[in-house]
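Dear support,

Our group has been running a series of protein-ligand predictions, and this particular one with 3-hydroxy-3-methylglutaryl-coenzyme A is the one our PI (initials K.S.) wants archived with full inputs and outputs. We had some confusion internally about which version of the output was final, so please treat the block below as the authoritative record. The input we submitted was:
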Amino acid sequence: MKGIINGFSKLSKQQKIQWVAETFGQNPTEMAEHISSWQHADAAQQKVLDGFTENALTNYPLPYSIAPNVMVNGKVYAVPMVIEESSVVAAASSAAKFWLNKGGFHADILGTVKLGQVHFRWLGQPETMQYLFPEIKAALLASADDITANMRNRGGGITDVELLDFTAEEPGYYQIRASFETCDSMGANFINSVLERFGDTLEFFFDTRTDLSDHERDVEVIMCILSNYTPDCVVRAWVECPVGELEDLARHAGLPGPEAVDRICTAVRIARLDPYRATTHNKGIFNGIDAVILATGNDFRAVEASGHTYACRDGQYRSLSKAWVENGIFRFELELPLALGTVGGLTALHPLAKRSLEILGNPSARELMMIVAAVGLAQNFAAVRSLVTTGIQSGHMKMHLTNILNHLGATDEQAAAAQQYFADKTVSFSAVREYLGQQ
Ligand code: HMG
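Confirmed final output from the archive:
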């Protein structure tokens, strides 16, 4: 059947491109050339990129942008962002500039603990397991000494090992939950290596216990893996200022400042009580967060997964941000888990991730957590400010105009004229097409 292939992974890159183009391309030569054309001119750089994944044919370009003026705890950053969506970088930049003369963003770290689990089955009496656990714990910690040595030298390592009993829900199922401090690394490989060592040690511990019955010596390790849910690796970012200083908040909509503030607070409360709204609200936050995570070579799937679990930690999916006025002070706050690294992994390998960290002043993981949270908050603030004042489309479509003009094949002159023409008009695909037709 067309499209099935054995041994694709064993083909050379050129052979893979050829096979894809010949099998699926309407014009195979043109497709093969097009795919190949996105490769880096420098073969050494391309080799590094190809090493990130498997069956790589080429590179998939995304814009690399900067949101300037992001002040966090008094220090100003130009934040690299990688994202394909119009208006996200403009919105983050706009909010950063808005808060610049109002103290900027503030942030603090609530914890940096990461977690891993060994899931196993043991069918002896739960009391016996409780009795044995102190010995098991000591054996586990000792067995990982060689793996944790460097991390301990940096001030990190394993900070706790607990036993959790789930036998009431699943016969014989226990979990070892280990806590880690991984300093400036995201730590996934470190944690997984420790956990797999724990798994082997657990099996050895039971296997060699001559004081246990045959039945009790039988332990089955199901899996050893980090948890991407890191509710104790959390950052909080906020902006605040007297409501009286927010008169310019809704200048486009002509709303008085206090009214705009009230509408923002109401919109955020709606996102706390309604999961449908909360999902879109948090998507707006991750517009900013993912873009910085990608630009710095971090793992946006891990951060998203953890953030969404955190958003429903009380049993209902809610907004990750809060907004309120107290004693005349408006405060807009975001709290979320962020397991990030500034050393190791792609941060050291991806040529632009390294550059991003340099632009950010080579921050520690803790500092990067605060920058990322500030951009998420900036994004959220800009989106909600637009939603409750002008509506999202006017600003978003103004930024999207370039895409529409490119799509319709406008010349540089037509595009420049269209930008002027639409400066005070509503942008839509049909309005732009009509405008170009009239040219
Ligand atoms: P504006 O006030 O018309 O902008 O806002 P301005 O022309 O007055 O410029 C002010 C500043 O905005 C600029 O300062 C820039 O910082 C930034 P300057 O550089 O001049 O010193 N800015 C730009 N930066 C880069 N390129 C540009 C640009 N234009 C302005 N072309 C703006 C325009 C789009 C910022 C505003 O309308 C806005 O913030 N809109 C919100 C857009 C948004 O949130 N987009 C995210 C995608 S929509 C979404 O998916 C999420 C959502 O569903 C989430 C939710 O529901 O909560 C909405």
